[in-house]
Amino acid sequence: MAVKDMRDLFLHELKDIYNAEQQLVSALPKMRDAAYSTDLKVSFDKHLDQTREHVNRIEQVFDILHETPSSQTCDGMKGLLKEGEHHLKAKTEGPLKDAGIVTAAQKTEHYEISAYQSLIAMAEELDYSDAVDILSETLKEEEETATMLSKMAENDINPQAAISLG
To answer: CATH 1.20.1260.10: does it fit domain 6-165?
Structure first.
C-alpha cells in the first residue's frame, strides 16, 4: 500500500494492529496452556476475551472510515510472538517458566500500547473523534493489562521463580 497522506498512514497502521490483535487471539491460548500459575491462566483467558473485543473495535473503526476490514502482516507482533515461543517451549517449569511467559506477554502489551497511542494521535489529527473514542477504550485496557502483568510478576511470579533458584 502506497502511503500518500495521513489517512493512508492511519489505514496502514490500523491494518497492522488488526493483524497484531488477530495473531494474539491465536497466541493467547498457547500462553495460557503453557502457564503454571492458575492466576496467570485466568488472566490470559480474560485477555483473550478482551483481545477478541479489540478485533471487533478495530472493525468498527474500519466501518467509521467506510473501509472493508483488512489486515497486513504485523511483523513486529510476529517477531515478539516468535521470541515468546522460546519461553513456551523452554524446559523450565513452574514459576520460572511463568516468569518468562510474563516477560513475553509484557513485551506484546507495550507494543500494542505504542501502536494505539500512535493511532489515537493520527485519528485526533484527522478529526476522527469516534475512532479516537474506540481506540482510547482499547488503549486503556492494554495499559491495565500491562499493569496487571507487572504486578503479578513483581508480587508473585518473580519472587517464586527466584526462590526456585536458591
So the answer is: yes
